[in-house]
Design goal:
The protein has 20 helices and 27 strands. By secondary structure, it is α+β, with helices and mostly antiparallel strands.
Length: 621
């Protein structure tokens, strides 16, 4: 669980719809009242040295529970798939922001990391840390055993180089240029293994911002204008458990576990990252991936969709017990999936119409009839944030009588075909979306909405076209899902500074003075209790304004797997995304004895026990 990877890096990921990172345009369209420092490139000899302040309270954490199994064994080959071959092995710059990036990021350790169950800070590259009195600085003591994959020691200068690297115009990465100039102020070196990192101003949750990863200055040496081309396919030294071993363009990428990885014996790393080799093969079609899995050419298969879990799994490999199924509930921040209403469109300027629209959406029917009640209704956009979440909010349910009340309140009446009309305006709205998976769900919503007097016009685009249309604010309704950060973020999504203009994340064009005031107070506060209270109030205000209609959530991991893959007794952590991912949390291991037993049974036709595991330890619904 890399802090830098999870909470700081910009990611735009394709999910069941398409997912736009809230970090992206927020920093491109920042509050004009906040002065942005100019981009500064550190010179090769610019090393800021200092004297450690007196009275620092050094902290560490060796008391949280381990989450790996003592039964785990090293060895084996894990085979998984990629939807497409990466366009580059760079982690910054053009074409670097694809799905493959996650495999690079999980092998980059940060100064400190986060325990996946307690969410407490645990050691990473640093063994100890301390907080500065200015509330914008943290101090770190590096583990002197830390090494790059080429054997070179990790030192404080590698963190100073992180700033130089990400501020450089040669990497062609404006977001990083901006972030490492506007948010990160400086790195101060006290000796080879002691440093501090400062933000430009006091920050809440400071540790999650200053938890930088190092950058190998000895590898890059001097950045030049040919950086993008020069390093497109270079295998960069890293500090994590795996490294790219070899690859065939367009076909596969193979990672190897480092046998003598410097961090393998750290408390929270023991019995993790067990697989020797990870083979990622390009398989562009989900159905073809399913066929590969059934033939044991892939070791696991994600099964969130009901048709795979309930129907397609009724096949020989599952019925004969050669493959198993697991349904593991998690307790983590929910990515807000739903319908975003563009209030710059005349029809949605009226709050009564927005509320009528919300009550026209029969999400419960989609869940019960189409999704077999496997999914859950999402109540609002900020579930799973603990005390930062407003757990009293409930989503508006399908209710034709309430639709009638709201529409008549604003002077609408039923017209031809039962659709509401007001003058020349017809309650008919196009819905922009980008995934085939959503089509059948939206069709159900369309059929139900018509009963309430609303006509939905479904408009499917490819991902890039939908992304462009929505950011240009040309949509009326957008069916989409956003990523989340460690704490709720509101400014980029709902502040008026980002309304009525293109290329911002305020796709609803929310413009509310009361909301603006609360958002800015929340954004500038470093008091935890104040921020929690404001977060709850902001969410209530957003619910009242009704620019967003939440649809559904999937608070679990559901996978098929070949029975020779083993998991700990707890199966996973409360924040697991993939129980078997060997390079993420890395808890699974290969059991050679069970492999031989299974292969023998398959050859002879022997039937083993069919197994479905359901674990609800972290279920909160």
């Amino acid at each position: 669980m890399k802090l830098q990877t999870k909470y700081l890096l910009l990611t735009i990921i394709l999910l069941t719809s398409f997912l736009i990172s809230a970090c992206d345009n927020a920093d491109k369209n920042d509050d004009k009242s906040i002065k942005k420092p100019e981009l500064e490139e550190l010179s090769d000899d610019k090393v800021i040295k200092g004297t450690l302040p007196k009275g620092l309270k050094w902290l560490t954490n060796e008391i949280d529970p381990v989450f790996a199994s003592e039964d785990a064994k090293k060895g084996g080959v894990f085979r998984a798939s990629l939807r497409s071959f990466p366009q580059t092995f760079r982690s910054v710059g053009p074409d670097s922001n694809g799905g493959f990036r996650s495999y690079l990021d999980v092998n980059k350790m940060s100064l400190i990391e986060m325990h996946p169950n307690t969410e407490n800070i645990i050691p990473g590259l640093a063994t100890h840390w301390a907080y500065g009195k200015d509330k914008r600085t943290m101090f770190f003591k590096l583990n002197k055993k830390a090494r790059w994959s080429d054997g070179v020691p990790v030192t404080a200068k590698d963190f100073l180089y992180t700033i130089k690297f990400h501020r450089s115009k040669h990497i062609v990465a404006p977001w990083y240029n901006n972030y490492y100039t506007k948010e990160i102020d400086k790195v101060v070196i006290y000796d080879d293994y002691t440093l501090s990192v400062s933000c430009t101003k006091p920050k809440p949750d400071l540790a999650y911002i200053v938890a930088l990863g190092p950058t190998p200055s000895h590898f890059y040496k001097k950045l030049t204008k040919d950086f993008v081309k020069k390093y497109n396919w270079n295998i960069v030294p890293n500090t994590g458990p795996y490294q790219i071993h070899k690859f065939k363009k367009g076909k596969n990428v193979i990672f190897k576990r480092k046998k003598n990885w410097w961090a393998k014996d750290l408390k929270y790393n023991r019995n993790r990252f067990n697989v020797d080799t990870v083979v990622l093969t390009v398989i562009r079609d989900m159905n073809l991936e399913w066929e590969h899995f059934k033939k044991a050419k892939l070791d696991t298969f994600r099964m969130p969709y009901p048709k795979f879990w309930h129907s397609k799994s009724k096949t020989k490999v599952f019925n004969n017990g050669y493959t198993h199924k697991i349904w593991f509930f998690v307790d983590k921040r929910i990515n807000p999936q739903g319908l975003y209403l563009n209030s710059d469109k005349e029809i949605f300027k009226d709050i009564n119409v927005r509320q009528a629209f919300a009550h026209s959406m029969n999400v419960e029917k989609v869940i019960s009839q189409l999704l077999r009640n496997d999914y859950f209704r999402l109540n609002h956009a900020y579930e799973g944030f603990g005390k930062y979440s407003n757990n009293t909010i409930r989503a508006r349910k399908f209710d034709i009588s309430k639709v009638k009340t709201y529409m008549e309140k604003s002077g609408w009446k039923r017209g031809k075909g039962g659709i509401w009309i007001k003058g020349k305006i017809r309650f008919s709205v196009p819905v922009t979306y980008s995934s085939d998976v959503l089509t059948e769900r939206l069709v159900v919503l369309k059929e139900e909405a018509k009963k309430a007097g609303l006509e939905l016009l479904l408009r499917k685009y490819d991902n890039s076209a939908a992304f462009k249309k929505i950011l240009e604010k040309k949509h009326t309704v957008a069916s989409m899902i956003w990523s989340t950060k460690f704490r709720p973020t509101f400014w980029s999504l709902y502040h008026s500074a980002n309304a009525h203009k293109t290329q911002t994340n305020n796709v609803t064009n929310t413009d509310d003075p009361l909301l603006d005031k609360m958002i800015m107070t929340y954004r500038n506060s470093i008091d935890t209790n104040e921020r929690m209270g404001l977060s709850v109030k902001i969410q209530q205000r957003l619910h009242d304004l009704c620019y967003y209609v939440p649809t559904m959530k999937v608070p679990y991991v559901r996978q098929g797997f070949w029975r020779w893959w083993r998991l700990p007794k707890e199966y996973g952590t409360k924040s697991s995304d993939d129980l078997f991912d060997p390079m993420g949390v890395g808890l699974a291991w290969f059991d050679k004895d069970i492999y031989d037993q299974t292969k023998s049974a398959m050859k002879s036709g022997k039937i083993l026990k069919a197994t479905t595991i359901v674990n609800e330890k972290y279920k909160t619904y």
